[in-house]
Every structure is written in structure tokens, then in C-alpha cells.
Amino acid sequence: MGEIFRLCTQLSVQELFELQEWIGSELDRRKSEEVERLKAEVELRLKQLNLSLGDVFPDMRQAVRSADTSKPARADLEAPEKGATYRNPEKPQDVWTAGVKKGRAPVWVDRLREKGELHRHKVGYQG
Fold first, then answer.
1. Per-residue pLDDT tens digits for 24-62
2. What is the number of other CB atoms lying within 10 angstroms of the CB of residue 2?
3. I want to staple 24 with a disulfide (CB 3.0 to 4.6 A). Which of 92, 97, 104, 120 is the partner?
4. Nearest to residue 28, comparing CAs of 104, 105, 108?
5. Which residues have C-beta within 8 Å of that of residue 83, sequence separation ≥ 6?
6. Do 88 and 108 touch, CB atoms closer than 8 A?
7. Contact, 75 vs 89, CB < 8 A?
């Protein structure tokens, strides 16, 4: 691992951003693979024992119903305008353009979306 960190110190800022985007995409891909693998294992085991998820987790339905709804669902969040550039309010030198590269948006963009404030940080916004 130390060798990887040493190599990263030699990358340009642009290369680090590209690496960050690649890592985000790779993590998403691997997590999806793990979830699918786990689902298959659980389904197989439940079938072998003639059980359902409700048998194993009887309180699951109630837990889902009473889940904290203070955080909006991802689909309800303000969507970034494709091609629009947004500026990080905490670090004005950091900008992100929606839809230009694959991968996850920066954390600060997600936070602004959750607050419903993304549009205010669009470059050229006249509030």
C-alpha cells in the first residue's frame, strides 16, 4: 500500500481528480457485485430452509415504515443541470461540471443537493 501512496504523490492535480472519479466508479461497481452475490447467497439459504426474509426479520416491515424520513430520497433531491458548472462554497477553487465525466459527484455537491442549495452555487447564478 505504501508504494501506491508514493506513486500518488507524483500525480498531477488533474490526474488525482481522474483517479478519484475512477475509484468512485470502481467502488460502486464492486459494491453492486457484492450486493448481488450476497442476495444470491441469502436467497439460496432461505430457499434451503423454506424461510422468507419476514421469518428471519419479522420487525423489518415496521422498521422500514418507521425509518427516518427527514433526509429526502435520492430521487427527490435537486438534480444538477447537465453541463452546468458548480462551485464549492467552502473552497471556491473547487468546481464540478455535471455530466462531463462518469463517476460520482463530489461530496460537497451531494451535501448541497441534500440541503436544496445546489442551484445557488451554479457558476453565474444571480440569486
1. 999 999 999 999 999 999 999 999 988 888 888 877 765
2. 6
3. 104
4. 104
5. 97, 98, 99, 100
6. yes
7. no
